Amino acid sequence: MHCPFCRHPDSRVIDSRTTDDGLSIRRRRQCPQCGGRFTTIETASLYVVKRSGVMEPFSRDKVVVGVRKACQGRPVTDSDLAVLAQTVEETVRQTGASQIDANEIGLAILGPLRELDEVAYLRFASVYQAFESLEDFEASIAQLRADHGRTGARVPASGETDSQPR
């Protein structure tokens, strides 16, 4: 690590701590040449392997941008999206791999997005899983309804609103 003050090619670590999110390490360093102190943040590299074979660094921002489109017009806040992106990153990092397929990131998005907003989930899933017919949507909706039945929650039928009597 080069000193940012005098560009000396070495530094001494004075203190190391993990950050609050546990995903990186904060190191306090001192230059043996000029005595200047500075802080570095170190994270493990995580690369996404796209379908074309191209590799690029993982980006929470890209997760947010992709999911934001599915959440358009839905009661989902920017902080909800930030938490979702963090959850996805934590899930992906827990695999222990330094390279992960873009497909795996999409799968990691589906679960938290479903918990956040089911309509946004259907929108995202329809593009991500390449729905080709109404039957694909119907099957996904049927699965959502079946899962709600297990938890005791009720999903309104088509055309029915929450305010209508049951």
How does the SSE layout of this entry go?
Blueprint lengths: L11 E7 L5 E7 L6 E7 L3 E3 L5 E3 L2 H11 L7 H16 L5 E3 H15 L1 H11 L5 H18 L15
Your description of this structure?
The protein is an alpha+beta fold. The protein has helices at residues 60-70, 78-93, 102-116, 118-128, 134-151; strands at residues 12-18, 24-30, 37-43, 47-49, 55-57, 99-101. The strands form 2 sheets. The protein has a 3-stranded antiparallel sheet, with no helix packed on it. A 3-stranded mixed sheet has the order 5-4-6. Helix 1 packs across helix 2. The termini are far apart. The chain folds into 2 domains: 12-43, no CATH class; 47-151, no CATH class.
Short description:
This protein has 166 residues and is an alpha+beta fold. Helices cover 43% and strands 18% of the residues. Helix 1 packs across helix 4, helix 2 (78-93) packs across helix 3 and helix 3 packs antiparallel against helix 4 (118-128).
Range of strand content: 15-25%
pLDDT < 50 runs, ≥5 residues: 152-166
Total number of strands: 6
What's the overall average pLDDT, rounded?
86
Overall helicity: 40-55%
The secondary-structure class comes to alpha+beta
Intertermini distance: 66 Å
The SSE string, one letter per element, is EEEEEHHEHHH
Main beta-sheet strand count, sense and barrel state: 3 strands, antiparallel
Radius of gyration based on Cα positions = 22 Å
**Strand order, sheet with most strands:** 1-2-3
Number of helices: 5
- What's the structural domain tally? 2
Principal-axis shape: elongated
